[in-house]
Amino acid sequence: MRCLAVRSGSCRPGIADLDAEGCNTTLLCMRSFVQPTLFARLSAVSRQLSNMSTAPEPAWKTILEKTSKENAGVASTLSTVEGDQPRVRSVIQRSMIMAKPWLPVMITTTDVRTPKVKQITGSSSKVELAWWFPEPVVQFRITGVAHILPNPSHPLATSFPAARLSPSPHFSWEDERYKTYATKMGGALRASFCRPVPGTVIDDYDVGKEWPEKIPPPGEETTDEEREQTKLALNHFALLVIEPSAVEYLELKVVPNRRTKWTLEGEEWRKTILVP
Ligand SMILES: Cc1cc2nc3c(=O)[nH]c(=O)nc-3n(C[C@H](O)[C@H](O)[C@H](O)COP(=O)(O)O)c2cc1C
After folding, report:
1. Alpha carbon distance 212, 199 (integer Å)
2. Number of domains the chain is built from
3. Is 27 helix (H, G, I), strand (E, B) or coil?
4. Which entry of 129, 194, 210, 270 is 20 to 30 Å from 101 by CA?
5. What whole-number distance in Å separates Cα of residue 95 and Cα of residue 105?
6. Is 118 near ligand 1, meaning CB less than 6 Å away?
7. Residues 156 and 241 grouped into a single domain
8. What values do phi and psi take at 211, rounded to 5?
9. How far is Cα 214 from Cα 194, in angstroms, rounded to an integer?
10. How far apart are CA 178 and CA 127, in angstroms?
11. Do residues 24 and 76 both lie within one domain?
C-alpha cells in the first residue's frame, strides 16, 4: 500500500513508516524506482523525522503560553521549602523551553547567591508556582522540581541535568543563560547582580548608593569598570528551571467554575477534572 502511495506522489516517508526494528519500509520500497541521490536525501530526511516527535505539545502549555503572552509582565509566586518552613516570593517567568516534546520547562532568572537557591539545592528541589491572571480570571498551579543553572565554573553547575533537559544534541544551556541575560534583562536588573549577597544585613539604605544603577548589555560596555561589572553580574546570574510534574488550571470566569489537572505519567499528561 505504501509503495502505491509513493508512486502516486501522496506518501511522505516519516516516523510512522519505521517498523519495530527501525527499518524504513517505505524507503526500502522506494529504492527500486528513485534515483540514488534522491534516495540518499530522502533517507537523511527520514532519519531526521524519526528523531522528531509528532506528538502535540501539552494542552496546558498552549493555554499558559497564550494567557501569559496576553498578560505580559504578570509575576508568578514561587514556593520552596527550607527545612519544614515554606518560603514564597514573586518571580517573573522569562520563557518556556520544550526540553522534550512532552516536557515544557519554565525559566526564571535569579541571583545564584539568593536563599531560594540554597533551599532548592539544599533542603528540597520540590517547588510550586502559582500564577494568577486577573484577565481572564484564571490561575495556574505548577508542581515540580527546580534546577539551578549558574555560570559554568560555579560548583552547582555540574548538578544541572543539561543533557536530560536538552531539546536537541546541539542545544546549549549556557548559551540560553547568556542570551537570557543579554536580551531579557534591563540595565537596572543587570546591575542588581553586582550587589553584595542578597539578603545580608547592611547598616542603612544609603549603603546602596555605592552600587551601580545600570549596566549596559554585554559587548556594549564603554569602560573597564563596566566590563568588570558585566563579568561580575554574569557570575551571579542563574537560570531557575522548573521541570513540572503536575499542572492545575482554575477558571473562575466561566460558570460553573472549572478546575482541570494534568499529571505527567511517563511521557503523557493525564487530564482530570476536579471540583473547583
Ligand atoms: C514583581 C516582582 C518580580 C520579581 N521577580 C524576581 C525574579 O524573577 N527572580 C528573582 O530572583 N527575584 C524576583 N523578585 C524578588 C523576589 O521576590 C525576592 O524578594 C528575591 O528573589 C529574594 O528571594 P529569596 O530570599 O527567597 O531567595 C521579584 C519581586 C517582585 C516584587
Report:
1. 18
2. 2
3. helix
4. 129
5. 8
6. no
7. yes
8. -85, 150
9. 10
10. 24
11. no
CATH of the domain at 213: 2.30.110.10
| CA 124–ligand 1 middle distance (angstroms) | 19
251 shares its domain with 178: yes
Residue nearest ligand 1's atom 31 by CA: 90
Instruction: Provide φ and ψ at 253, rounded to 5°.
Output: -85, -35
How far is ligand 1, taken at its centre, from the CA of residue 120, in Å?
Answer: 15
Instruction: With cut-offs at 50, 70 and 90, classify the pLDDT of residue 56.
Output: confident
C-alpha cell at 165: 533537559
Q: How far is the CA of 252 from the centre of ligand 1 (A)?
A: 27
Same domain membership, residue 209 and residue 258: yes
Q: Is the distance from the beta carbon of residue 87 to the nearest atom of ligand 1 less than 6 Å?
A: yes
Q: Closest ligand 1 atom, CA of 116? A: 27
Give residue-wise pLDDT tens across range 114-124. Answer: 999 999 999 89
Q: Tell whether 72 and 121 lie within a shared domain.
A: yes
**39-53 tens-digit pLDDT:** 455 544 444 444 455
The last residue of one of the domains, among 16, 33, 51, is 51
CA of 58 to the centre of ligand 1 (A): 28
pLDDT band at 10 (very low <50, low <70, confident <90, very high): very low
Q: Can you give the residue range of the structural domain that contains 11?
A: 2-51
Mean pLDDT of 141-165: 98
Asked if residue 10 and residue 110 are part of one domain, the reply reads: no
Last residue of a domain, one of 30, 51, 72: 51
Query: What would the mean pLDDT of 244-264 be, rounded to a whole number?
Result: 98
Residue with CA closest to ligand 1 atom 3: 91
Nearest alpha carbon, ligand 1 atom 10 = 110
User: In this model, does residue 84 exceed pLDDT 50?
Assistant: yes
Angle between helices 224-236 and 173-184 (to 10 degrees): 130
Decide: 116 in ligand 1 pocket, CB within 6 A: yes
Q: Indicate whether 84 and 201 sit together in one domain.
A: yes
Does 123 share its domain with 7?
no
Residue 114 alpha carbon to ligand 1 centre in Å? 9
> What tens digit of pLDDT does each residue of 181-203 get?
999 999 999 999 999 999 999 99
Express each pLDDT in 202-233 by its tens digit: 999 999 999 999 999 999 999 999 999 999 99
Question: Does 92 sit in the ligand 1 pocket, CB within 6 Å?
Answer: yes
